Amino acid sequence: MVLTQRSHARRPTLEDVARRSGVSKSTVSRVINGEDRVRPEVVDRVRHAVTELGYVPNQAARQLVTHRTGAVAVVAAQPENRLFLDPFFDLLLRGVRRELALHGAQAVLLFVEEPDDYPRVADYLGGGHVDGAILFSLRPGDRLAEIVGRLGVPAVFGGRPLPHDRAGEHPGQARVDGDNRGGARLAVQHLVSLGRRRIATVAGPYDQENSAADRLAGYRDVLGDGASPHLVERADYTRQGGADAMAALLDRSPGLDAVFVASDLMASGALQTLRERGRRVPEDVAVVGFDDLTSIAETTDPPLTTVHQDTEEMGRLMVRLLLDPATGRTGLADGSPRRSPDGPPGAPSVIVPTRLVRRASA
To answer: Which tens digits make up the pLDDT trace of 33-54?
Structure first.
């Protein structure tokens, strides 16, 4: 067995960088920590010396100066087993992780499933372990918004609260949401354009943040008085929930000729039920989903027409708003995320646009 001798070369220090760039240690420290009180030519000299020497800042010492931990809590008010089975959350977390990596930070994933989880999460968030929190899947009346507000932890929320909730009223709690209502309108308008007249919907659950309520509202916006209660069934954003809801709709309204399903995962279950009941898609019943999760929408039989929202970009945007709130206030050009009128005063809440993606199901 051959042992490779470990290198005993001395690690470059702050003093070495200062000596090589011809400035003081304090100036080097200001450049490394991103302060703006240094002339550009000096910044260039210091950065060149850092690269040349291969200097790596001591993270622990840097935290003492910047008061930052380099970690962000990602808090999911969702059962752990369900979270990892839902492709939507996988894409959202991927966006969060990738954007954090660009900022040299990492995610700490926390789950809130039971009442006893709230004190544990509150102790962690208030213990100075993270620079902020990203929270999603909150339900009406959830205590997490109040907890982060009381602790003064910078926070960004996925989705927006229901009208009677007080979530998001604390300063600095921004929100990121897809254009759920507008996307639902696109879906139902498309079904109307196909000549469908008995259009049902599988809506999301009551205990979800406003995504479920907004998608149902978009459905009703288009159909108006034609949105019969008999054509509305709620489910839990799972495949089985979509299958069961489709069965209930067919039992009540066997003459329905189209269905807007509020998530692709539920739509895959709805398609299964239609196939088992001998209904052809789209000839007998046209189907439109929501999310455009390609792992689902491109593999269903037939491939699913659905509403696209950039879920990974939503995760990235949540990180940007947390670490650089100005991102939500400027640069929101046409076709990019826009300010939400429903966000709390002073917080950079934005809505990500949606679009219809046509495939074979409608």
So the answer is: 666 678 888 888 988 888 888 8
User: How far is 352 from 335, CA to CA, in rounded Å?
Assistant: 9
Angle in degrees, CA 214, 283, 195, rounded to 5: 55
pLDDT in tens, 206-229: 765 578 889 999 999 999 987 899
C-alpha 91/C-alpha 313 separation (Å) is 9
- pTM for the full predicted model: 0.73
- CA–CA gap between residue 267 and residue 187 (Å, rounded): 13
- Complete edge-to-edge strand list for the sheet that includes strand 232-234: 232-234, 199-203, 258-261, 286-291, 305-309, 354-357
Question: Could you tell me if 264 and 296 are in contact, meaning their C-beta atoms sit under 8 angstroms apart?
Answer: yes
DSSP 15-29: HHHHHHHTS-HHHHH
Decide: 176 and 206 in contact? Cβ < 8 Å: no
Cβ neighbours for 337, distance < 8 A, ≥ 6 positions apart: 176, 317, 328, 350, 351, 352, 353
